[in-house]
Every structure is written in structure tokens, then in C-alpha cells.
Amino acid sequence: MEKIALITGATAGIGEATAKKFAETGYDLIITGRRKERLEQLKKDLERNSNVKVWALCFDVRDKEAVTKMLNSLPDPWKNIGVLVNNAGLAVGKDPIQEGKIDDWERMIDTNIKGLLYITRTVTPWMVERKKGHIINVASIAGKEVYPAGNVYCATKHAVDALSRAIRLDLVEHGIKVTNIAPGLVETEFSVVRFKGDQDQADKVYEGYKPLLAEDIADVIWFTASRPAHVNIADVLITATAQANSTVVVKND
User: What is the set of domains in the chain, with CATH numbers?
Assistant: First the structure.
């Protein structure tokens, strides 16, 4: 196995699209997610449609012990991870701070920040030992600016942005690349999760304009990973043409 990518949150959206893109380009894959049936189906699809090997690990990135146990259980050849895509993340709720729900806050903090750290802490020593590797963190436009009722979600994605820069400083001497990917509005399950299953409310987020698709972000992630060894794309902000910033979106209706 010459090229291995580990992609978290691979059972839907950007993570699933990224797994398919990397498989198309010949990467063997370690895919993780919480939904076992989806994970196993993705593994079957990837192996059927591409000439690659796929290792599926079902766990929640919020569970530090599960992260450590599952990743360390990989056979040694599979620990030669060339690209780590820290994609697992979510927004839950959209309340002003004075009405915020603590459970929502903790879920976002535990997934978007702590989960990313648990994965990174486990994988980076393997990269340091080999003196090469690439960490790609999927942040958000919400990590570049803030918007009303986005308080804690924005804070977690600002943390991802800061961690990308800090990790780059820590690992540059070891020849390890670090990229921060900051998507704007992408039509995935993101809004369904944010609005806790309210499909009608989620659909309204993407009405009246052409939002980004998961495949658009996957293309950019793969592009950053495919640059020559001496090139590191440090930070990418991606929006739909109709989106100027977090709050300004031109809609036709």
C-alpha cells in the first residue's frame, strides 16, 4: 500500500464524497463514521468501483477511548497514513446565546474540536516517525467570521482554523503539511442536523440559488493533497458564487 488516506465522518456529505474522490485516484482508505450500515455499504461500493483496499472503523470521534483503541488496532501497514482528512463535524441548533442549549454546545465542542484532536493526536506520531504526511482539516467560513445565532458553532470552527495554523507550526520541522479547508454553504445533511431533522427548515437554507455540493469540496481537498511534495496549500475559503460571506447570499426568489 503506497497511498493511504484516513477520512473521518465518511458516511455522508463531504466525507463520503472525499472518500470516493480519493478512491478514484488510487488511494487505499480508512473510513470512519458512527453509522455502521452506511459505513459498510460505502466500503463495499468503494472496493467494487475502484481498485483499492478499504478499512472501515465504526466509532464516534467524541469517544477518546474508542478513537485510540480503533486506530491503534490497525495493522502496521495501515498506519502509514499519508493523508488525514479531519472531516467529522456538525452544527446543532441555531439559538442566540441566552437561549442556547448546553447539550447542543457540548455536542459541537466534543465533535468539532475534541474529536479532531483525538484523531490528530493518535495519527501524527506515525507521520512524524516517517517524516511525511498531510493533515487536512475541514473547518468552515464560520471559522473566518461570525453570524447571528451561530455563536458556539462559529467558536468551534474558529478553533479548527487556529488549530490548523498551530499544528502547522508544530509539524513543519517534520515535513508534514497542514491544510485548512473552509467551505461556505454546502448542500448536505448539515442543515438537517442543525435543525434536528426539520427537513423543511433545512431546505430553505438552499433555496433560490446554487449552493456548493459535497463533490465540489472533495475536489478541492483532493487538489490540495495532490500537490508536489514542496507545495503546501495552507488555507482555502470556498463559497458558492451567490455567497459573499456568512450572511450575504443572493437568492432569485
Answer: 4-238 (3.40.50.720)
